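RETRY 2/3 - previous attempt timed out on the joint model. Re-submitting the same 509-residue input unchanged.
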Amino acid sequence: MALKSVNEFLARISAGFGKNFVGMGNTYPNTTSTLYQNLSRCMKFQKLPSSLPSGVTSFIPTSLTLFHVSGPVGGSLLFAGVNLGTINFGTSSFTDGDTYPVVTELGTASSPTWGPIITEVTTSLNAGAGTATLTYVNQAGTTGRTVALDLQASSIAGSAALQVNYSGSDYGIRDISSVAFSGQSAPAGVVKLWGVRPLAMVYSGASSIGDHCVADLLGMDFNLMKLGINTEILLFSFATSGKSAISELYIVGDN
Amino acid sequence: MGAFDTWDGLIRQAQNYGPYVRSVVQKMNGAGTVAGVIPAARFTPISLPASFGTGVTGVRFVNISSRISGNYNMLLVGLEYFLGSLNLAGSFTDGVPMPIKKINGESIQTASMWTFLSVTTALTASATLSLNYTNETGLVSHTTSNVVFPLGAPVGTSIFLNPSLQGGDFAVRDVTNMTKVLGTTGVISCYGFLPLHFSRGMTDSVSYLPRMADSSLPFFIGEANESIGFMGIGREVFYSGTTMICNLYGLAET
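RETRY 2/3 succeeded.
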């Protein structure tokens, strides 16, 4: 059926199909990199449930409130992460994940989607981590495209970065096919590769405790998206130093 | 009542047809070269789908958010049209005129108030050129003053063309010729924009003004195979490493 009006969303919430998901954490700067690679941690919200509750067909985020506890001014990107895979520099291996989802888009079923990569360091990279070269499928579906991972050696656990380089005139990635390693010396480190399905961009305008910002995803920040089970929702902060925040995301179960 | 006249209408369009949702991240790779009265740097455009579902005529972007790094930069996001190019070792190649777009139900011949010259093949020497064009009211054979690109300008170096338009003109409907005054090799292309979104703020900050409240720009509809272009504007925009992120959320126009 699907919820198709504001009143239907309200009725759905009254019937008990809404829930707050809380996210919190500190972010850490990646001091080895330049701007936009010197970025902070992906703060994670609670993972969405591993199965659909009875009567629910998908999860629709409707609002985000971000409480900025400390740290510099700056923006944050709220997104639903696509697990593109994990790179283990220590064992020089790649564990493949998912592709960017195939969705119904503008009336066309089974439309492939594409986007950027956000890299999250889950185990610190040491100085000998070397270079990882991604082989990927680009936005048009062309296979065999290659580019070196931007993330630099000695990046610390908890830091994250935008992958800003692509092969040639590519501007997006559908899938990571494989990873090759070079220049390694007693390497260590693990990096998770996240695809980005954007939900909202918010801005913390003050550095004092208590500042908060709100994104109304069914209103002025309209961004209705249907998310599936096990979706991880992350908050990526554009900041050159660490910050702390608590976030609250309200989600309604579609019917 | 139109599909976009109510919040319920937006919800129905999203649920019935599925939204177009993308995040675009790009970095400027050129060396720092400032050109023109208002310098700019062209990022790689993206292509909209080649076709849409039954009954869908295009995509209406109801929410665009963006950020561009560096101080004193702004980012223009818009429908981008190739108006023509000049090969400095050869000749002029004509592009397309600015399109006719339906705005509030009326078909309007558009003209680009945001027209840029961009280096699309790197220059090996400085270059000077002028353009012949049709202005916003349809007057033909108007001519710009000379526009100068600096020595060795790399791909992406751009100049905002409007200060060079013939007196009284403020927009370009069509480029009919580009003439080399000075230069050896390289290609300079002319692009017109129908703006969808501007990043705001003069510092390294997020622009997230919702489109629904942004009444300064009409909702130009993106049609099949059209390009969404990204133009960084400002004196610091062409530093190597200048990066932009833009999130696009569009609904089916029916």
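The mean pLDDT of chain A is 86. Closing ticket.
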